[in-house]
Amino acid sequence: MDWDVFLTPYKQAVDELKIKLRGYREQYEMASQHSPIEFVTGRVKPIPSILDKARRKSIPLNQLDTQMQDLAGVRVMCQFVDDIKIVINLIKSRTDFDIVEVRDYIADKKDSGYRSYHLVVSYPVMTIAGEQRILVEIQIRTLAMNFWATIEHSLNYKYEGQIPKDVKDRLQRAAEAAFRLDEEMSQIRGEIQEAQQHFILKKLDQ
Ligand code: 0O2
């Protein structure tokens, strides 16, 4: 298997989607509006991780393109939980790719404590041989969700998937704290917006 050849369109898809999604942030900035997108990252899964996941999930290497949906991954970070819905709607309204699957781990968090909204999209990459459809997993999450997931991911790596019970318990508590942080921030934001509205109405009265 020539990995470079196989993964080249995946890299192209990640690069293009990063530019497209970052473009929204620029537009909100230009309009002096709050951007629901804080920042965007992306990666092509490293070959050792692909081989590892293929082994774990019994995916034949010749079926990676259809069976492994996150070979190409793009992550969108938001400040507030409400921003996630806005980003989902922006993505759903696009006409340059199709959504093929949705996994809502925010409404339905994983046992690990993981929260994030996943959209799998079929993205057309224009190759010299014509259009090639590439599956890309777009993960949308708040900064707090991302903080938790990043730490949990590195612990999983460190303990090779066998996180000790006491660390797991701590991670559960940390996940709850991250959830509460998101709630507190949403409330603070709501109060700020209310105060701003009040201020605008008062000015109009004058
Ligand atoms: P990496 O290193 O992030 O590239 P599965 O892999 O079985 O959990 P599936 O069906 O492949 O699930 O897709 P799903 O549920 O969309 O999850 C794939 C990706 O979501 C993972 O990629 C992680 O990025 C993220 N994710 C899912 N569950 C967890 C979790 O419990 N903790 C953290 N930190 N991230 C999670 P990979 O393949 O793990 O690899």
TrEMBL record:
Pathway: Purine metabolism; ppGpp biosynthesis; ppGpp from GTP: step 1/2. One of its GO terms (biological process) is guanosine tetraphosphate biosynthetic process. Pfam families: RelA_SpoT. It is an enzyme of class 2 (transferase). Homotetramer. Belongs to the RelA/SpoT family. This is GTP diphosphokinase. It comes from Scopulibacillus darangshiensis.
